[in-house]
Every structure is written in structure tokens, then in C-alpha cells.
Amino acid sequence: MYRTAYGDYIGAKYALAASEFQAMATAYPDDNLSGNAYFYIGEIDLRTQKPTAAVKMYNHLIEHFPDNVKVPAAHLHKAEAMITMKQNDGAARELQALIQRFPNSPEASTARNRLVSLSARR
């Protein structure tokens, strides 16, 4: 199920992929791949100009699958969605949480740079 959904995501069949990821997450709610599914649904929402929905998906991943490998990217992409919605203070808090929780991750490096650019806007 996951492989099929991911293939459709890579193929930019976003509506189909989102449906397949949602079906997988519903069928296997405790499976770690369901955490990945929420991440990719968030990615689809972000790419299709639905930042509020993306934040919801990233939050679900962060809260329900805290050990999932996609959590650092979810924090970063959640912050990007918040910036899109002009929620710069919330985005800064999200970036700081990412840096605190995953200080040596590639996402933390990106978050540090993004914080600098957010500070420059103020």
C-alpha cells in the first residue's frame, strides 16, 4: 500500500497519492509507515497551496509518531507552511523546537539559516 502511494506521490498524482496514504494510515494507524503517510499528505497539501491542512498533517506526525525519521523534516516544513500563512512568530518557535530537539540534523542547519532570514524581516 505504502509503496503504491509513494509511487503516485513521486509521479505527482497528488490526489490519488493523498487518498492512498490516508487509506493506509486508517488501515494501519499504529504502523510507523503511517507516520510517513501523514508526512507525505502534508507535503501534498503544501505543494497544492493548502498550508493550513499541511500544518495539521505535520502536527499529527510530530505528536503521534515522535520517533519517526520524518519528524525533523515535518518540523521544518511546518515552519515553512506557517511562513506562507504569515505566522512568522509561530514559525520561529517551530524552527527553534527543531534545533533544540534535533541539533545535529541537516534540517536543524536549514532551520538556523531560516531563523536568520526571519529575523532580518522584522
CATH topology category name = Serine Threonine Protein Phosphatase 5, Tetratricopeptide repeat
Number of helices: 7
Uncertain spans? none
The oligomeric state is single chain
CATH superfamily descriptor: Tetratricopeptide repeat domain
From the coordinates shown, what is the CATH architecture? Alpha Horseshoe
Shape: globular
Total E-strand runs:
0
Beta percentage is under 5%
Helix content: over 70%
The end-to-end distance, rounded to whole angstroms, is 45 Å
- What is the number of independent domains? 1
Strand-helix topology:
Blueprint: H1 2-10, H2 14-27, H3 32-47, H4 51-64, H5 71-84, H6 88-101, H7 106-121
Helix pairs in contact: 1-2, 1-3, 2-3, 3-4, 3-5, 4-5, 5-6, 6-7
General description of the model:
It is a single chain. The chain has helices spanning 2-10, 14-27, 32-47, 51-64, 71-84, 88-101, 106-121. The protein is 80% helix and 0% strand. It starts with a helix and ends with a helix. The protein is built from seven helices and no strands. It has a single domain (2-121), classed as Alpha Horseshoe (Serine Threonine Protein Phosphatase 5, Tetratricopeptide repeat), CATH 1.25.40.10. α1 (2-10) packs antiparallel against α2, α2 (14-27) packs antiparallel against α3 and α4 runs antiparallel to α5. The longest helix is centred in the N-terminal third of the chain and has 16 residues, at 32-47. It is an all-alpha fold and 122 residues long.
